[in-house]
Structures are given as C-alpha cells and as structure tokens.
Amino acid sequence: MAAKKSERALVQEWRDVLALHARTMCELDRELHRHGLGASDFEVLDVLAEAAPADGGTSYRVQELADRVHLSQSALSRLVGRLEKSGLVVRGMCGEDRRGVRVALTDAGRARHAEVQPLQRAVLTRMLEG
C-alpha cells in the first residue's frame, strides 16, 4: 500500500500543477496570438470541431460547451460573441428548448481551427511531455 503523502507534499504537488497550467496557457496564448486567437478561443473551436454528427450534430448548447471548456456561462458568452464577430462561429436557437442557444463552427472557423491545431498540439507536446 502506498504511503500517504504529507500535507506539505500534497500542497506542493497542487502548486506544481497550477504552475504547469499557467506556463502552458501562456505559451499557447503566445503561439495562437499570431493567428488572432487565445488559448480559450482555440479550446472552444477545438471542442466544436470535435462535435460529431453521429453524436447528434455539429453544435453544442452553450451550457454544454461551458462545461467542456471550463468557463462560466457568462465568460463563454463573451468569448463566443468575439468568435462570432470574427466569423468563426454562429449562434442559433436550440430546437429542443427555445430558451437555449447552440453554437457551431462556420466554414471559416473550421479552416482557422485546421490551420492552428498543429501549433496547439506542438505546444502541448513540448510543455507536457518535457
């Protein structure tokens, strides 16, 4: 049976995780900024690009998307507004709940995602495998 970590070791491990996350997000922002995106912008595009028609379509409800990208609904709404203004996503009414809003990639959003995905994956590889 593994020995229980000391409280100090547990806290240090948590701080190491936070530091790695912060360094990785900064590096992602730096790389993606050249393409007009931030790390959170890309994450939204990436999740939307993975929306499979076999799973019910090519869009997500805003609440589902917020859960997937770990943003509050209000922060996500602002982010989606910026992406929509840039022509990368489109918002529409939710067919199953008229109060809901769905978000989907546009053709321009798919193209931008395809363009920058290799950069994002290279940063993840460099930061997380090193």
Automatic annotation (TrEMBL):
One of its GO terms (molecular function) is DNA binding. GO terms for biological process: response to stress. It holds the Pfam family MarR_2. This is Transcriptional regulator. It comes from Streptomyces purpureus. The keyword GTP-binding does not apply. Keywords: DNA-binding, Transcription, Transcription regulation. Residues 1-130 form the HTH marR-type domain.
